[in-house]
Design a protein that fits this description.
About 45% of the residues lie in helices and about 20% in strands. By secondary structure, the protein is α/β, with parallel strands linked by helices. The chain folds into three domains: about 170 residues, Hypothetical protein VC1899 like domain (Restriction endonuclease-like) (Rossmann fold, 3-Layer(aba) Sandwich), CATH 3.40.50.10770; about 50 residues, no CATH class; about 90 residues, no CATH class. The strands form two sheets. Strands 3-2-1-4-5-6 form a six-stranded mixed beta sheet, with helices on both faces. Strands 7-8-11-10-9 form a five-stranded mixed beta sheet, covered by helices on one side. It starts with a strand and ends with a helix. About 35% of the residues are buried.
């Protein structure tokens, strides 16, 4: 039986994640795992820490995958929007064959919700929804209101009773979307300028602003083509949890934490092995046929090295994997 995965944007309200779990459970679709797309805003990271502690203990769900989307605050530039789309599409593509995917866009910034909705249209999901809560209840679920409470009180606020009139409790609001995944190869070719648009998708692409009335890719369409170029070139996802090998030393916990984050971000990695420290600059190098060598400082004066084994089967897949991981390393070093 396919596992059920809740994919959600996370902001400063951790309650919209636990409420989604409870509402899906009420509908008979309790998630087996939770994947959280988040920025690096301090309050958002505090929400993430709370959920990483609470969900395994209270909800009995040990599979929690946090994915940093490369922004400190809002998605406030074209570059940040493109990066978010690449990450979101990569994750949906990675899990679509092995999981039933339920997507919650109630948390995080509005731009994140809009972009994740677009990613769902490209790569699909079983359900796309928003969580509605009464205003007074919404305020109680904010991380700033939870910081100084006891664990018992936090649990009450994260899991408001569903045995109430619908006007006084959280509600799951399904959102319509058009699954374009069956047409994705045609869309990709059209937006890349490699073929004219088939009649059955021409008007949809024009209406979405991806094609001009003359059938020429717009600047937005070209950006979408660039996103699909990279996502579709990445190696296939690894269907098992990657092996992580970190030797015992002073920085062991820091290295293991980084390796776990990297494994979540790059679902095509099958093994991560820490290697001997070396001199040099942070970055990512290819080691054909299927490995990457990663150098990262992790806020120290040491250049830590990791060997990543990937599912890459071609030079093009390995290069796409290198670029994808290098962007992550670059963000960590900023």
């Amino acid at each position: 039986m396919a596992r059920k995965l809740l994919v959600a944007t996370l902001g400063t309200s951790p309650a919209v994640i636990t409420e989604a779990i409870d509402l899906l459970d009420l509908l008979g679709d309790r998630p087996d795992g939770v994947l959280l797309l988040h920025t690096d805003d301090p309050d958002v990271k505090e929400s993430l820490s709370l959920l990483q502690y609470h969900i395994p203990r209270h909800c009995g769900i040990p599979w929690i995958t946090p994915i940093s989307v490369g922004s400190y605050g809002d998605i406030d530039s074209t570059e940040a929007a493109v990066e978010f789309m690449k990450v979101a599409c990569t994750q949906l593509r990675a899990y679509r064959d092995e999981c039933r995917i339920f997507v919650n866009i109630a948390g995080g910034r509005k731009a994140m919700s809009a972009l994740l909705t677009l990613a769902v249209q490209f790569y699909g999901a079983e359900r796309l929804f928003h969580i509605w809560v009464p205003p007074w209840l919404e305020e109680e679920g904010e991380i700033t209101k939870l910081k100084d409470l006891s664990e018992e009180e936090i649990t009450k606020r994260l899991h408001p009773s569903l045995d109430q009139p619908t006007s006084d409790r959280p509600r799951l609001v399904d959102l319509p979307f058009i699954a374009l995944f069956p047409m994705l190869p045609d869309i990709h070719r059209v937006l890349s300028g490699k073929s004219p648009p088939p009649r059955e998708i021409r008007q949809s692409l024009i209406g979405a602003g991806l094609l001009s009335p003359q059938g020429i890719p717009t600047p937005l369409g070209q950006r979408v083509a660039d996103i699909l170029d990279e996502v579709e070139t990445l190696p296939p996802a690894h269907q098992m949890e990657p092996q992580i090998h970190i030797p015992h030393h002073h920085y062991q916990d820091r290295l293991r934490s980084f390796a776990r984050e990297l494994a979540g971000y790059a679902p095509f990695v099958t093994e991560i092995r820490a290697e001997e420290w070396r001199k040099g600059q942070p970055g990512v190098q290819k080691q054909p046929p299927s490995e990457l060598i990663v150098g990262v400082r992790l806020h120290t004066d040491i250049l830590f090295r990791f060997r990543l084994v990937t599912t890459a089967a071609t030079p093009g897949q390995l290069e796409a994997a290198r670029r994808y991981v290098e962007r992550y390393i670059r963000r960590r070093e900023e």
